[in-house]
């Protein structure tokens, strides 16, 4: 009986922790992560585009479009994954 009570208390404590963890990712945090990751990704795209084309203007254009589109996609990807309870 005492063991059952201890187990129930531990489960309740974990559930509370889980609830805090499952909602801790705010949209602002997702945006900050998206921007920081896109800066790294865009520098990579800029370098690769320049190596392949040899033209900095074209490489910059490609990297600019890449920055905007992939940042938007990443934000929605993060928000969707935040809704999935699997692995939390």
* Helix proportion range: over 70%
Percent strand equals under 5%
Mean pLDDT: 80
Largest sheet geometry = none
Low-confidence stretches: none
Name the helix and strand elements from N-terminus to C-terminus, one letter apiece. Answer: HHH
Structural class: mainly alpha
The separation of the N and C termini measures 30 Å
Number of helices: 3
Q: How many domains is the backbone divided into?
A: 1
Characterize the overall form: elongated
For the secondary structure, the number of strands is 0
- Whole-angstrom Rg: 21 Å
Protein name: Putative membrane protein
Organism: Aquimarina intermedia
Keywords: Membrane, Transmembrane, Transmembrane helix
Transmembrane segments: 47-76
Structure commentary:
The chain is an all-alpha fold and 88 residues long. It has one domain. The protein is 86% helix and 0% strand. The chain is built from 3 helices and no strands. It has helices at residues 2-22, 27-53, 56-83. Helix 2 packs antiparallel against helix 3 (56-83). The chain is elongated and about 75 Å long. The model has no long low-confidence stretch (mean pLDDT 80).
């Amino acid at each position: 009986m005492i063991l059952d009570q201890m187990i129930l208390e531990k489960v309740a404590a974990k559930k509370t922790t889980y609830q805090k963890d499952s909602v801790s990712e705010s949209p602002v945090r997702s945006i900050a992560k998206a921007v920081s990751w896109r800066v790294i990704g865009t520098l990579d795209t800029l370098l690769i585009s320049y190596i392949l084309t040899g033209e900095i203007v074209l490489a910059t254009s490609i990297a600019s479009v890449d920055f905007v589109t992939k940042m938007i996609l990443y934000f929605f990807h993060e928000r969707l994954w935040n809704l999935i309870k699997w692995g939390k």
